């Protein structure tokens, strides 16, 4: 079985979203083999750090939490779509999706992962989806959508909690589409082959999202 890990390593100093409602990563040693006979650590990490899932509760009042997500949606065959030709700040439209093979689980590669180490480069000017494209994906039965950018919404959107704040997120999450953000290593995946995906988040009570280990494999 061939496997590719699409997950970012969690470590101190890693890129995180630049608002005060997203925490930096802290990893503190609590126990050592020399002193205690065992290694233990305390990890402080936000629910939307690194490779992670968005549950509906992230934007939808009363939406499903991470522990309520369907395991069936998180495991199984996945369609991989190469969108590396899409330019900076360019929207993915319905016409760009109509000729693509979409599945219940779909991953888009935009070629954005190499910008991850630079917060300004990673969080600005990435390709995004239009609201109508998001509605089209919902209508086509997509239940899990992954990508190597930080968001399906435009980087220019306001972050004020109003109607124009993250409208694409809201379309997906209102319709129980699970979002998988900050993927990596898609250059190591043969897009001409049929792959399966496992996107398994930490099972945190009442959580709006959670870091996840995401891998694809083929027999």
Structural features:
seven-stranded mixed beta barrel, globular, Glucose Oxidase, domain 1, alpha/beta, 219 residues
Describe the structure.
This protein is α/β, with parallel strands linked by helices. The chain has a single domain (2-218), classed as Putative cyclase (Glucose Oxidase, domain 1, 3-Layer(bba) Sandwich), CATH 3.50.30. It is built from 6 helices and 12 strands. The chain has helices at 33-36, 71-74, 94-97, 119-123, 131-139, 167-174, and strands at residues 2-5, 26-31, 40-44, 52-54, 75-82, 91-92, 105-109, 128-129, 144-147, 178-181, 195-201, 209-218. The strands form 3 sheets. The chain has a 7-stranded mixed β-barrel with strand order 4-10-9-7-5-11-12. Strands 2-3 form a two-stranded antiparallel ribbon. The longest helix is centred in the middle third of the chain and has 9 residues, at 131-139. The model has no long low-confidence stretch (mean pLDDT 97).
Short description:
The protein is α/β, with parallel strands linked by helices and 219 residues long.
């Amino acid at each position: 079985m061939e496997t590719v890990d699409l997950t970012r390593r969690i470590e101190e100093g890693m890129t995180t979203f630049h608002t005060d409602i997203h925490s930096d990563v802290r990893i503190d040693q609590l126990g050592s083999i020399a002193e205690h006979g065992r290694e233990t650590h305390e990890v402080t990490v936000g629910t939307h750090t690194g490779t992670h899932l968005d549950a509906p509760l992230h934007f939808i009042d009363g939406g499903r939490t991470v522990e309520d997500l369907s395991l069936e949606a998180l495991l199984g065959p996945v369609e991989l779509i190469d969108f590396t030709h899409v330019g900076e700040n360019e929207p993915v439209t319905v016409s760009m999706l109509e000729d693509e093979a979409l599945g219940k689980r779909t991953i888009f590669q935009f070629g954005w992962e190499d910008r991850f180490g630079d917060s300004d480069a990673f969080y600005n000017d990435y390709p995004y989806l239009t609201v109508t494209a998001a509605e089209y994906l919902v209508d086509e039965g997509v239940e899990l959508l992954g990508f190597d950018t930080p968001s399906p919404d435009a980087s220019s959107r306001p972050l004020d909690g109003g109607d124009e704040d993250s409208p694409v997120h809201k379309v997906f999450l209102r319709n129980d589409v699970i979002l998988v953000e900050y993927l990596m290593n898609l250059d190591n995946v043969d897009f001409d082959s049929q792959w399966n995906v496992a996107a398994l988040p930490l099972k945190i009570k009442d959580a709006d999202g959670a870091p996840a280990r995401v891998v694809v494999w083929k027999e």
